[in-house]
Specification:
Blueprint lengths: L2 E4 L6 H14 L3 E4 L18 H10 L4 E3 L7 H6 L8 E6 L2 E6 L17 E4 L6 E5 L2 E5 L13 E6 L2 E6 L4 E6 L2
């Protein structure tokens, strides 16, 4: 099964369309959204084509294919307009014998690890900076930001297939790749 991971759409209809196009082109079966879907946040400039209502419509069409966690910009009102759960702080994914602790990153991150076992994988967004690193006792993954990347990175997403985590830009270029087992 192929999974796509994305984070920090921040209400950008432009980048939400790009993300969903990439999802279809990748042939992924699940889209894991790591928070900050609709609101741009007070520290960020408005992303390209800021249109949360359009993002709502696009994501609701995909409701049966999305797993999502709450970001620091999600609020209860967001759950009222989205037809899939978005208020959980984390989800645990068991994929190909690997255990992923998926969260946004504003609570649990490399500086505040969740309770997990050695060899588990922490995947989060929030920083808008892509990562795929082996750490002592765990793997740290971040697909970067779909709409407001930082530290000179392009807008990115990631796919997981056959235990290989690949971060790509929207032109299909591989930015970083890591075998997880």
């Amino acid at each position: 099964m192929k999974y796509m991971f994305a984070s920090d759409v921040h209400g950008s209809a432009f980048y939400c369309r790009k993300m969903l196009e990439a999802y279809r082109e990748e042939g992924a079966e699940r889209l894991v959204l790591l928070g900050d879907l609709l609101y741009h946040g007070p520290r960020n400039d408005l992303p390209k084509e800021y249109a949360p209502k359009e993002v709502i419509a696009m994501l609701n069409e995909m409701k049966n294919e999305i797993y999502a966690v709450r970001g620091n910009c999600e609020a209860e009102v967001d759950q009222m307009v989205l037809n899939f759960p978005v208020m959980a702080d984390y989800c645990i994914l068991a994929i190909d014998g690997l255990t992923f602790y998926a969260t946004h990153g504003h609570v649990y991150n490399e500086n505040n690890l969740p309770p997990f076992r050695e060899g588990d994988i922490l995947i989060h967004g929030h920083t808008h900076v892509l990562k795929a690193e082996q750490r002592e006792g765990y793997i740290l993954l971040n697909p970067g930001s779909v709409s407001i990347p930082k530290e000179g990175n392009p807008p990115t997403y990631a796919v997981l297939e056959d235990k290989v985590f690949t971060i790509k830009d929207f032109d299909g270029n591989i930015i970083k790749e890591m075998r997880l087992a």
